[in-house]
Design brief:
binds zinc ion; 3-stranded antiparallel sheet; 2 domains; 12 strands; Rossmann fold; alpha/beta; binds nicotinamide-adenine-dinucleotide; 352 residues; Dehydroquinate synthase-like, alpha domain
Length: 352
Amino acid sequence: MDRILVGPAGAPACEILIEEGLVDDPDAGLVVPPRDGRTRIAVLTQPGRPAVYARSLGRAVRDTGLTAEVRVVPDRDAAKTLATAEEAYTWLNGLALTRDDLIVGVGGGAVTDLAGFVGATYLRGVDVVYVPTTLLAAVDAAIGGKTGVNIGGKNLVGAFHHPVRVVIDPGVIAGLPDELIVEGTAEALKAGLVGDPELVALYETHGIDAPLDEVVARAVRVKAGVVSADFTEQGTRAVLNYGHTVGHGVEMAAALPHGHAVAIGMVAAGRASEIVTGFTGADRQRDLIGLLGLPTAAPGLAASTVRSFMALDKKRSAEGLRMTLLETVGRATVTAVDDATVRRALEAVGIT
Ligand SMILES: NC(=O)c1ccc[n+]([C@@H]2O[C@H](COP(=O)([O-])OP(=O)(O)OC[C@H]3O[C@@H](n4cnc5c(N)ncnc54)[C@H](O)[C@@H]3O)[C@@H](O)[C@H]2O)c1
Ligand SMILES: [Zn+2]
């Protein structure tokens, strides 16, 4: 089993456990950290396969003598609403959950974000554990302590609340439908590009068939490392925004899936890196993104539209737009970029 700690040195907030078979045949002891007074487990999950995993986890937990209840919330971002959170609070009241008890989120990033938000706020903070069941949730959403719901815009209401444990079963990730693998691959590749050249090499060798146990372990290590080095998000975590400046603009302008938008954003950021840092791998990165089945351009979008959405982005500073750029594969930097560079970056993905 892989065990990766997240948090300041010597004071980990979260442990990430990666092992095959944890979800299909749940080991209650691995999912539920012991705590004095802990008697009840409340599991929030999504319809479909995550609910199946959640129910079998519930049975395994009950076999250990604890109480376990499972609640299925709406699928995808329909779960991330204050109304769903309120229903969950009322449900937890009915269970008489205490601060010694535990909330578990089983599913994709929508469920882990909701479960984390409920855990952050119910009784002013209850421990949460995540069992991410998508590639995106495993390598991204479940790590870093950001929780939230959508109010008008995405994630506008939330709190930092780290899960005490994240349990990842690469076998579950490997069983995902192709489109969810491709979607999560954008963030896994991003992790490699900003922090692990060997992960990028793995994708160059195997394409989308890269072994998911190694992909997950490597991508998780990158995010865990970046988060631990900037635990309270003062600045250096921004390297994780690689591909997300243009990506957010494209996502909003064209209503693309997040992973697709990030892929296009990484191509644009690769071009900007070439101009600003002298990065030499932009063409190779674009070819790899295409090889993985992700889009490398967003032709037909007006630059003015994409820019107006980019301008709304939180990463704008007084000096102008700040972007995360690559110096080399595996090393990123965050820097202000001028208007001409933004124009050329957008042109590189067909946005004029
Ligand atoms: N907190 C963070 O730092 C952070 C980071 C990135 C993304 N996010 C959030 O994560 C969410 C996106 O995550 P996501 O892509 O996992 O989406 P999701 O939770 O919406 O899940 C996508 C789909 O996958 C299905 N699914 C989940 N597990 C499955 C499985 N094992 N087999 C088959 N289908 C399965 C779900 O039912 C859903 O239909 C967004 O809300 C985003 O804001 C949060
Ligand atoms: Zn992202």
